[in-house]
Automatic annotation (TrEMBL):
One of its GO terms (molecular function) is hydrolase activity. InterPro entries: AB_hydrolase_fold (IPR029058), TEII (IPR012223), TesA-like (IPR020802), Thioesterase (IPR001031). SMART domains: PKS_TE. It comes from Amycolatopsis heterodermiae. It comes from the Bacteria. Belongs to the thioesterase family. Residues 25-245 form the Thioesterase TesA-like domain. This is Alpha/beta fold hydrolase. Pfam families: Thioesterase (PF00975). Keywords: Hydrolase.
Length: 246
């Protein structure tokens, strides 16, 4: 299959596997990039082909205009992913979970049935919190990022790196924090929610509310750890997803 220029812009295939039995689309967290999912791609290939989403404004897309509206991002990615051969499943972490849900809604409305929606480290769309870290000073925003332990603290002490990552971080925090669930058709695919038991960004009750957003099956898995529990439990999560897609 010849990939469109738009697909090459938005999607990274670290281990191309055109004969894979399933494709897992991975949506990064706020400030994250496609490379976060390189280990997932390596672990699941070749039976599952991982498509890692590359948001504008980072890494090789650093000069592309940032998008601070999840609905706009969802519309753009729906056009890209609607052309992908199935069967498809989605995995999103933190902000990426909300975005994956919105793209899933749009694709299902077009008749595309997903194998599953795996939402990590994120409360359900209808579980609202009024968070405004994107309005904080640079120091305030960086303090929140360090609190979540998503980025090596030593990296955030490098002024040059901070100048590079702050615009994308603030942009993504705005997109995630200004997102508001719009009632309407949700999804019919199974939803698997995964959280860390010490995650300050989502409680078990907030995660369980994902069950109300699908007419299909729902399951919640809890791991020891905080917001980036994935970093310690990636092997276990990869095995779980592989088993679901088998």
């Amino acid at each position: 299959m010849t990939l469109s220029l738009d697909s090459q812009l938005w999607i990274r295939r670290f281990h191309p596997a055109p004969a894979a039995k399933a494709r897992l689309v991975c949506f990064p967290h706020a400030g994250g990039s496609a490379s976060y999912f390189h280990p997932v791609s390596s672990a699941l290939s070749p039976s599952v082909e991982v498509l890692a989403v590359q948001y504008p404004g980072r890494q090789d897309r650093r000069n592309d205009p940032l998008v601070d509206d999840l609905f706009v991002l969802a519309d753009q990615l729906t056009e890209i992913l609607g052309a992908e051969p199935g069967p498809l499943a989605f995995f999103g972490h933190s902000m990426g979970a909300s975005l994956a849900f919105e793209v899933a809604r749009r694709l299902e409305a077009r008749g595309t049935q997903l194998l599953g929606l795996y939402v990590s480290g994120r409360r359900a769309p209808s579980a609202f919190r009024d968070e405004r870290y994107h309005l904080e000073s640079d120091d305030g925003l960086l303090a929140e990022v360090k609190r979540l332990s998503g980025t090596d603290a030593k990296v955030l002490e490098d002024d040059e790196i901070i100048r590079m990552v702050l615009p994308a971080l603030r942009n993504d925090y705005k997109a995630a924090e200004t997102y508001r669930y719009r009632p309407g058709p949700d999804v019919s695919c199974p939803i698997l929610a995964l959280i860390g038991d010490q995650d300050p960004k989502v409680t078990s009750d907030e995660a369980r509310q994902w069950a109300t957003h699908t007419s299909g099956a729902f399951e919640l898995r809890t791991y020891p750890g905080a917001h980036f529990y994935l970093n310690e439990h990636h092997a276990s999560v990869n095995r779980l997803i592989a088993a679901r897609l088998a």
